[in-house]
Write a structure and sequence with these properties.
Helix content is about 25%, strand content about 20%. With about 500 residues, the chain is an alpha+beta fold.
Amino acid sequence: MTADAFDYLIIGGGTAGAVIAARLAADPSLRVALLEAGPSDEGDARILLVRDWMALLGTELDYDYTIEPQPRGNSAIRHSRARVLGGCSSHNSCIAFRAPDGDMQRWQAEGAAGWGPEATAPFFQRVFEKVHLQEIPDANPLNRALVEAGVKAGLPRLSFATDGSFGEGIGFFQVNVKAGIRQSSSVAYLHPLSALPPNLHVLTETTVTRILLDDDNRAVGVESSRGVLRAEREVILCAGAFDSPKLLLLSGIGPAAHLAEMGIPVRVDLPGVGEHLLDHPEGVVVWESTRPSPGPIVQLWEVGVFARTGIDPNPLPDLMCHFGLMPFTWHTEPAGYPSAEWGFSLTPNVCRARSEGTVRLHSADPADPPRIDFRYFSDPAGYDERVMVEGVKTARRIAAQPALQEWIGRELAPGPAVQSDAEISEYVRSTANTVYHPAGTCKIGDPSDPLTVVDPELRVVGVSGLRVADASVFPSMTTVNPAITVFMIGEKCAALIGGKMPPTLG
C-alpha cells in the first residue's frame, strides 16, 4: 500500500464520520483516513464550551449557507453547517434525544429494512456508552417557572433522560455535555488526538472535490486538496445533508438531466440524489422580561415542550418548542418587530414537516456552495403552516399561566395585535428560522424505489465501494433533535462494514 492509499477513506470528520473512523481503526490491520475540511477542535474553548455555541454561527468554522428564495417562507434563513472536526456535534446546542420507536418503525416501513427500533437499539446503546449525557439541572428560576407554567397549561412533566415512553410533555433537556464541555463525536471518540492508534490518520484542512470511480463504477479514491488519495476497500461519505449530495453530483452520481445541465459526465443516473430535503422549520414567540435571565445557564435553550395539535393522527407529538433564556430576534427585528435587552423565547417547530426541498449544484466548480431550496411551507395541504400556527397558540397559552407573570413585561413578537390564524401564519412564515436539522437528501430505501440513494446497508445504488452515513440518509425526519440518531448511524455503519458487532461496547 502506497503512502497515499488507505483501506477506508471517510469524507467528513463530523458527527458520524468521527464515530466510523474510531470504530474501524480499532482493527489494527486496517489503515483508515478521516478527511475533514476544517481544523481540529481540540483545545479550542470557543468550540468546547457549550454555553457559547451561538457565537460560532457565522464564523470561519461555519459554512453559513444561504438558501434559495422562499415564496411562502423566510428567504433570509442562513443554514449553519460546521467546518471543524466533530462537525455539527462541535457546533450545536447538544440537545440529546434517542429517536422514538415510532420514528424508527416509520423508517423501516419506508424501506429502511434493518433500521427499526429493535435493530437500531444496540447502536443507540453503543452511543450512550461512549457519549456522556446529563439532564439540564432544575436550577434556573426562569426555566423552573416555564416548566411550572407548562404543567398548569396541561402538559405532563417529563424527564427526557429517564422516561422511556416518549410523548407529550414538558421537561429539562438531556444534553451531551460534561462539566460544561460538549461531548461531540470528536471529543467522545477521537480526543486526545495524540493518543490515536497509528493506523488512524486524521487529516484536517483537507477538502475533497470529487469521488473517483473506475470503469466498473467502483469508488477507488478521491481528489482532494492533498492530491489523489486512494481507497483499497471503501469510500464512506459523511459530509452532511448539503455536501454529501453535492459531492455525489460533482462525481457524476445523480439526476442525469441536472448533471447534463452542469456539464458533468453522468456516471450513475440516480434521480434521488439531492431530493427529499427535510428540516424542522421553526417559528418564534418573544417576550420582554422584567429582569435579566438568571443563572445558572448551561447552553441557553434548556427546556423542551412536546405537544399534539390534533392535526396529525400519528400518536407521537407533532409540535416541539425550545425555550430560550434570551430574546431570539434574529428574524423578527429585521422585520420591524421590537426587541429588548432582557427577554425569553419559545420556538414552535414542526416535528415531522411535510414540505420537501432539493439540493443542487450552482456549477461544476467544487468551490461553489450547493444550491439549497427547502421549499418551506409548500406542502399542498398546508400541514406545516397549520402546526406552526397551533404552536404559537400553545406558546401563548403557556406564557399566560401564573408562574410566568412575574417575568413577563410584554409580548414583543408577534405582539398582541396578531391574533387570527391568517395573521399568525403570515407572521410565523415570514420570520421563520430553522433548528439546523437538514436531512434526507441521500435517503435509505429499497433499491427498487427510483428515489432511493443508499440501500439499507448504506451502499450507494449503482456504485460499489461507496457508502453514505450522515443525516442525508434519513428516510423521514425524527420527531426530536436528530444528533444522537446521526451518532447511531455512524455506529451502525461501522458494524455493517465490519459485518458484526464488536465483542465489547467500550
